[in-house]
Description:
61% of the residues lie in helices and 0% in strands. The radius of gyration is 14 Å and the shape is globular. The chain is built from seven helices and no strands. It is mostly helical.
Amino acid sequence: xxxxxxxxxxxRSRFRSGFHxxxxxRAYTREKGMxxxxxxxRDFVSTRLAPEVIPNDGRQTPTKGHPVFVAQHACAxxxxxCLYKWYRVPMGRALTEAEQQKIVNFLMAWIxxxxxxxxxxx
Length: 122
């Protein structure tokens, strides 16, 4: 599945398409810069998503508080269960470096798209 196909599929999900960066998360992204946010994404993916066994899988990713957390939920990359359901990434084994990089790239693409759109009014 291409990135655009994945974004289109996620856009059809009421739950996934409901995630947007808050003004605080947008400001944090502007303040830190995309390189720092990418480093955070790599760290979160490698420690919270990539291990073979995640004791609290399905509950390890907060829904707000950091742009990457929001992106993980918007992109269905928040837990191994969602990775399997949406992308058929097998559970019960560690993610490869290539898989981790693909996820990070996808999360960053979502954040870039989100930063380019007008803020959501709530």
